[in-house]
Design brief:
Layout (H helix, E strand, L loop, with lengths): L2 E2 L2 E2 L8 E2 L9 H5 L5 E4 L4 E4 L11 H5 L5 E2 L3 H13 L5
Antiparallel strand pairs: 1-2, 3-6, 4-5
The structure holds iron/sulfur cluster (2 copies).
Length: 93
């Protein structure tokens, strides 16, 4: 199982969310991400999150590059607090 700072990666809710209604299917995010997180749905002609836990924790490059702001991530401050709590409860390496 993949771990991040001693926490199972699948317990870390950091991955993109794509708003289909804003996605134009330009493919910019698919070009930039080399981690296999995103895929393209031919029927809807939109990008989709296919492997969320392949996302690099705290990376948000695709969201910054999306021309229509269709990609979002958790609030950074709330996420930092979540990780702090998680580490404090003993789930350490
Ligand atoms: S960069 Fe944005 S608009 Fe383009 S395919 Fe990705 S999510 Fe859709
Ligand atoms: S945040 Fe980074 S690793 Fe995650 S999907 Fe976007 S480009 Fe890929």
């Amino acid at each position: 199982m993949d771990m991040w700072r001693g926490i199972p990666r699948e317990e870390i809710p950091w991955f993109p969310t794509i708003d289909d209604s804003k996605c134009t299917g330009c493919g910019e995010c698919l070009s930039i991400c080399k981690n296999g997180v995103l895929g393209f749905d031919e029927s809807s002609r939109t990008a989709q999150v296919t492997n969320p836990y392949n996302c690099v924790v705290e990376c948000s490059t695709c969201a910054r590059l999306c021309p229509t702001e269709a990609i979002s991530f958790p609030d950074q401050a709330a996420f930092s607090e979540f990780i702090k709590q998680k580490l404090a409860t003993g789930e350490k390496p």
